[in-house]
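USER: For my understanding, would you kindly supply a protein sequence with its structure tokens?

ASSISTANT:
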Amino acid sequence: MNKTDVLKMVAESTELSQKDVDAVLAAYANLVKETLTSDKTEKVTLPGLGTFSVKHVGERSGVAALAGGKAWTKPEHDELKFKISSSVKEI
């Protein structure tokens, strides 16, 4: 299902225009990004689906066997994490 399909389905079920649905989803995405960028301990809920949070990942390194034994290092960083609600885990 692509973005257009999602916008159309949500618009039909809410009696909003596809443009309005797109604006709401874009605003929510910005809210998640801005909130979690400014406070990495914060969590943002997507009602009925789950929760966004930030996960800190430490530095990792190793040797790539398929690349002729070339050593690699990935610096520490933060990743967006989504934990699905238990109410929708089983479909």
Observations:
- The beta strands are 44-46, 50-57, 60-64, 70-74, 77-84.
- The chain has a mean pLDDT of 93.
- The helical segments are 3-14, 18-38, 86-89.
- The two ends are 18 Å apart (CA to CA).
